[in-house]
Specification:
90 residues; three-stranded antiparallel beta sheet; 3 strands; 2 helices; elongated; alpha+beta; single chain
């Protein structure tokens, strides 16, 4: 190594690979692993009234929370779609 050069390290190969694979297999989500926080992060990429961001220490727990968020979003959309439109007439 020459003076002034900085070695390049890639940290947490396995966790980063798991996050990348989950992102590929779960459309509608951006998934990443934070090497500093040591957390997996999932960000919903579908239209939402508020950002949906989930963090967890394990990929399995993250997947569970992602499915719960999807079901909540589906339930909310279904409830809105099944609500009859209110008439503006008295």
């Amino acid at each position: 190594m020459t003076s002034g050069s900085v070695p390049h390290y890639t940290w947490d190969h396995e966790a980063r690979s798991e996050a990348a694979m989950l992102e590929i297999t779960c459309p509608g989500w951006a998934v990443l692993y934070g090497t500093g926080s040591r957390l997996f992060h999932a960000i919903a990429t579908w239209p939402t009234p508020e950002p949906v961001i989930i963090c967890d220490r394990t990929i399995d727990s993250l997947k569970t929370q992602m499915r719960e968020a999807e079901m909540t979003a589906i339930t909310q959309r279904w409830a809105l779609a099944s609500t009859p439109a209110r008439s503006s007439r008295p």
